[in-house]
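Async update (no meeting this week)

Hi team, since we skipped the sync, here's where things stand on the single-chain job. The sequence we agreed to prioritize is pasted below, unchanged from the tracker. I ran it this morning and attached the output directly underneath so nobody has to dig for it. Comments welcome in thread, and please keep replies under the output.
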Amino acid sequence: MSDYETITIERVGNTEKVTLNRPERLNACPPQMADELFAAVRDLGDARSLLISGNGRAFCSGADLAARGSSSVKGGDASYSALQQHYNPMIMALWNCPVPVISAVRGPAAGVGCSIALAADFVIAGKSGYFLQAFVNIGLVPDGGSSWMLPRLTGLAQATRMMMLGDRIHAEEAERIGLIYKCVEDEALDDEANTLAERLANGPTVALSRMKSNLRNGLSSDLNTALQLEAEGQRIAGWTEDAGEGGKAFLEKRKAEFKGR
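Output:
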C-alpha cells in the first residue's frame, strides 16, 4: 500500500515518520487507519527507526466508533471482527517492528490510541498528553493489547485502576508510574522525539533489533530461554559491520560510526 488517506509518511534521514492524520476527529482510528499503519510498518524499507505522532491536538482518541458502526455486522460481533481483521494485526506489527519505535504523544492517547502509543519502545509525551482506557464508561472491554501491556509497564494495581476505573493518566504521572519513558514540555515534544529517533536511527541497527526482541521475549520467558536468546543475539550481532566498527572505535578512543549493517 503506497497511497495513504488517514496517515502521512515522511522520510527524514534514516527515520520513517508516520503521522496519524485525521485531526478533525482527533485522529480517531477507523479500520482503514489500522490497515494503513500496518502497511507502513511492514514497508519500512531501509529505515532504521520509526517515529509515530498525531496531527493537531491529539495523538489518537481511540477507535472510530462511527466508522465501525457503518459495518453490516452489529454489536459485539462487529467489534470482534474489526479487532481480529484490522486492529490486532496493526498492534502486532508495531510490537514486532524490527527497528526502534518512538511515539510522541500530545493530547489524548485513548482506547486503541493508548495501545498504539504504548506499543512503541519509547513513549515521549508533552504535558498536555494523557493516557485513557475509557472502555468501562461505555460497557466494553479494553482491547488493543492493553490488558497485556499495562500490567507489564505499571504493575497490576495501576493497570487495574486504568481499566476498571477509567482514570485519565496525565503525562507527568505516566512517567512517574513507569507507563512512559519521558514527559516534556509540549513545545519541546517534537524536538525531543526527533532527536531520540535520529539517535536510534544512527545506532547499531542489528544489535538494537536483537535487544528489542530479547526484551519482548523476556517478558514472558524463563531465565534459561533468555540466556539462550542472548547468546544467539550476540552471535548474530557479532558478525555485523557495526560490531567491527564498534570494537575498532573503542580501541581508537573515538565515537563509533554505525551503518546499520
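Quick observations from my side:
Strands lie at 7-12, 15-20, 49-54, 101-105, 108-110, 122-126, 130-132, 169-170, 182-184.
The chain has two domains: 7-201, 205-251.
Reply here if anything looks off.
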